[in-house]
Amino acid sequence: MANKTAAVAAPTNKKSWTSYIGEYGAFIALVFLVVVISVVSPEFRTAGNFLNLLRQATFNGLIAFGMTCVILSDGIDLSVGSTLALSAVISAKLIMQGVPAILAMIIALISGTLLGVVSVLLVTKGRLQPFIATLITMTAYRGLALILTDGKPISNIAKSIGDRPNQFAFKLVGKGNFCNIPIPAILLIFALIVFYFVLNKTTFGRKVYATGSNSKCAKLVGVNITKTKVIVYAISGFMSALTGLILISRLDSAQPTLGDGYELDAIAAVALGGTSMSGGRGKITGTIAGVLIISVLNNGMNLLEVSTYYQDVIKAVVILVAVLSDRKR
Amino acid sequence: MKIEMKGINKAFGSNQVLKDAGFVLEDGEVHALMGENGAGKSTLMKILTGVYTRDAGTVIVDGKEVIYKSPQEAEKAGIVFIYQELNVLFDLTVEENLFMGKEITKGFGICDKKAMRKKAQEAMDKMGVKIPINAVMSDLSVGQQQMVEICKALMVDAKVLIMDEPTAALTQSETEGLFKLIKSLRKKGVSIVYISHRMEEIFELCDRITILRDGTYVGTEKIKDINMDDIVRMMIGREIGERFPARDAKIGKEMLRVEGLTKGKTFKDVNFSVKAGEVLGVSGLMGAGRTEIMHAIFGNLPFESGKIFIEGKEVTIKNAREAINAGIGFITEDRKTEGLLLEKSISENIALANLGKFSDKSVVKKSKVDELVKKGIDEFHIKCFGPDHECNNLSGGNQQKVVFAKWVYTEPKILILDEPTRGVDIGAKKEIYSVINDLAAKGVAIILVSSELPEVLGMSDRIMVVHEGKITGIIDAKDADQEKVMTLATGGTL
Ligand SMILES: Nc1ncnc2c1ncn2[C@@H]1O[C@H](COP(=O)(O)OP(=O)(O)OP(=O)(O)O)[C@@H](O)[C@H]1O
Ligand SMILES: [Mg+2]
After folding, report:
1. In which element (H, E) is residue B347 found?
2. Which residues of chain B have pLDDT under 50?
3. Ligand 1 centroid to A218 CA: how many Å?
4. Residues whose CB is less than 8 angstroms from the CB of residue A44 and which lie 6 or more positions away in sequence, other chains included
5. How many A from CA of B339 to the centre of ligand 1?
6. Among A116, A323, B309, B382, whose Cα sits 20 to 30 Å from the Cα of A303?
7. What is the residue-averaged pLDDT of chain A?
């Protein structure tokens, strides 16, 4: 019996080279892009530009990490950009009204988390499709951000903070450096490690994959689907809010239109990284590669002075090629 | 462990599925649960294990009345259910499936992968199966997935194991392995509830049998004291006569011929033909390449070399649409993923394959669809609320009947049937056999791929045996017997 079963289509642990390309496709594409752009643009190769690039990657990266979890669990979160704006506006308003900046920033993170929970309640309790649910919250949060600010940006935030420690904290998030490395870049790397650990080493990570793979089966083996989904969207909301804080710290102003269109870049990065849009399969390491591909493309095309009209088309083509080659394996 | 279920009622909406159902499971016995498709066997077991809630009735386990609220509660009590529709997470690895929901941790929800691997490997070794625990589930055969499910049950030290049609997707040899396992479990005092539509298995394996009809308890007997006809009578309330109805078909001209069909190691130099009115049985072990050959003919699987002739003319079939246009129908082995749109209604499923028939300038005529669907439900005795019944909520056997109806109405000239009676009850099987005979009488050439040897022997005119992608023999059914077919199927010669 034992022999027979093994003889029947025994799957091997050995992988063919094509499957390696599939697995590391995003990284191969990234290296290729970096090499090509380095050759044609000397400016691209400078250390300063690389740090700049990493900083740019942070905004999309942090959001894309949260998005990866959501998509792995067979969901989608279109509200990330609006959540970012609303939580940023909330914290800016609080600061302007004299609330200590550190407290205001914590409140922003909590708001972002709760905004994510609202989205997911529409999914779990309201039985809406994730796409529709987060389309609704995306629209609503943006509207709320506009209402709160009267449509006008809140500027000169740092100056309005009275005491030094709070002012320092507010500036640190977006503009600070540690050993010459921008704080946002450090946050990105730290987040990558945390997400990698959670998705690969914890029971929660397994539940996320199980939920996305087949929620009915997962439920039968005792996975609390609702709880898993709530946590996943909460994470996404938290990451959006965190990104918002970095943005307003850098810009020293909070606009209600902040983060517009960020959901698309995040979803593109996740898809580039090889995560299945129907959940259950994918890796956070793929997502970071996807994020970097998008950043390198943007950065490179700006340096090469490609017209912005062409930039979008080229980006679209790269995403298409990447996703198609991923599907082949 | 002794389990007593009494007076169980259950309705889904207005559909009363169980009324006064129940049975008694004794310690250390293998207890068969039989009944027609839709009799409520799976539902009764899902009530026992807390998947569904009951409307009325009592469950007594070892003298104490219990209500399990979830499968996990039942599992803690030692009752494990291996579902008919295998409950596996296809994107995850074997190890992740084995431990889902009960991971070994180092605390704080951090997985102890090493410990889990070790325990999984031990459990596999104990069962004597060699399945790599790092393999992704979707890369395994159905038989192997089944073994993983059983392994999962054994890892929690099940005292009661419920198996819902476990052999439906297994080959002869895998089935034998499973039986050995079941017998050794019984020796260890594990009680087993065994649901199956295969009479031979019931007689080989079980100590007692309980029969349900239309959701009601009919009776319990010792296997020693009962024969097949009694069981059938209890199941459907009447006799069904011969198991394989006689066929009155004239064998005519050649409809399909395959020459030198080859695809790497999957199948090599396959030659055969089928004539109008003929039933060609195809036998072999699972993984022998039978299914792949059929997919190649149907244009689903590209092959390297070889020719296909339909009514003497060579054809190239690149996809299913072309195959259907060429007059080939194909009932696939895996109804869950290939044969049925589970979220859709019976009516939509039948209509989809027959759109051409119903539509007038691309507008689908609802009245025509309804008419045919009603006919199908009658003809195949599909147990449902009506044409709009969602296929997800049909019993396993009834799903298979929908697939069958869907294809028969496309009026194919050549019909390929891959495991057409898998999970189908004995009465309905006979109905399907009659349909096959009727089709043959109308001049349809039929290829019947089946792992059930009695079925191949009872239904075919000729039997083709496949072993590791090669045809090891084509024998006349008159000269064939179980032994000869098995010899060929395992690579021997006659
Ligand atoms: N979730 C559900 N919702 C509605 N109806 C259901 C549901 N589950 C089962 N049914 C219905 O209950 C009846 C009994 O189904 P069940 O699956 O218990 O049959 P079974 O005896 O296991 O049949 P089979 O041998 O075909 O597996 C069927 O008519 C089926 O359509
Ligand atoms: Mg059943």
Report:
1. helix B346-353
2. none
3. 21
4. A37, A38, A299, A300, A303
5. 19
6. A323
7. 89
Which three-class secondary structure string do you get for B53-115? CCCEEEEEECCEECCCCCHHHHHHCCEEEECCCCCCCCCCEHHHHHHCCCCCECCCCEECHHH
Pocket test for ligand 1, best of B8, B9, B10, B12 (most atoms within 8 A of CB): B12
Per-residue pLDDT tens digits for A245-280: 999 999 999 999 999 999 999 999 999 998 988 889
- Residue listed under structure tokens 């034998």: B176
Distance from CA of A125 to the nearest CA of B (A): 21
Closest to B400 measured CA to CA, from B379, B372, B427, B428: B428
Instruction: Give CA–CA dist B487/B479, Å, rounded.
Output: 14
pLDDT digits (tens, 9 = 90+) for B125-175: 888 788 899 999 988 877 788 889 888 888 888 899 999 988 877 777 778
Which residues in A137-172 are b (16+ Cβ under 10 Å) and which e? bbebbbebbbebbeeeebeebbebbeeeebbebbbe
- The domain A43-325: what is its CATH number? 1.10.3470
B193-B189-B42 Cα angle (round to 5): 10
B134 touches chain A (CB under 8 A): yes
Give the distance from residue A256's alpha carbon to the nearest chain B alpha carbon, in angstroms: 39
pLDDT by residue (tens digit) across A281-320?
999 999 999 999 999 999 999 998 888 889 889 888 887 8
CA B364, distance to chain mean position in Å, is: 32
Q: Which fold has domain B3-236?
A: Rossmann fold (3.40.50)
Q: Which long-range contacts (CB under 8 A, 24 or more apart) does B113-116 make?
A: B113/A201
Q: Provide the ipTM.
A: 0.81
Q: What is the pTM of this model?
A: 0.81
Residue with tokens 């072990």: B285
Q: Is B249 helix (H, G, I), strand (E, B) or coil?
A: coil
User: Which residues make beta-bridge pairs with A300?
Assistant: none
CA of B199 to the centre of ligand 1 (A): 21
Q: What is the model's pLDDT at position B177?
A: 82
DSSP H helical ranges for chain A? 2-7, 17-40, 47-72, 80-96, 101-124, 130-149, 157-160, 164-175, 183-201, 203-213, 215-220, 225-251, 262-272, 284-303, 308-328
Q: CATH 3.40.50.300 residue ranges in chain B?
A: 3-236, 254-489
Residue B177 CA, ligand 2 centroid: distance in Å: 22
Element (H, E) at B172: helix B172-187
pLDDT at position A325, please?
67
Show me where the domains of chain A are located: 43-325
Judge if the beta carbon of residue B208 lies within 6 A of ligand 1: no
**Cβ atoms of B72 and B240 closer than 8 Å:** no
**Which residues on neighbouring strands pair with residue B270, listed in sequence order?**
B261
Determine the residue of chain B that is closest to A217 in CA distance. B87
* Burial of residue B370 (number of CB atoms within 10 Å: 0-12, 13-18, 19+): middle
| Assigned CATH topology for domain B254-489 | Rossmann fold (3.40.50)
Say whether A213 and B51 touch across the interface (CB within 8 A). Answer: no
Q: What is the pLDDT of residue B466?
A: 93
The alpha carbon dihedral of B170, B171, B175, B178 has a sign of negative
pLDDT in tens, B263-298: 988 899 999 999 999 999 999 877 788 989 999 999
* Disruptive mutation site among A3, A4, A219 for chain B (greatest number of B CBs within 10 Å): A4
Instruction: Kindly list the residues from chain B whose CB atom is less than 8 angstroms away from the CB atom of residue A3.
Output: 130
Please state the atom number of ligand 1 nearest to the C-alpha of residue B215.
14
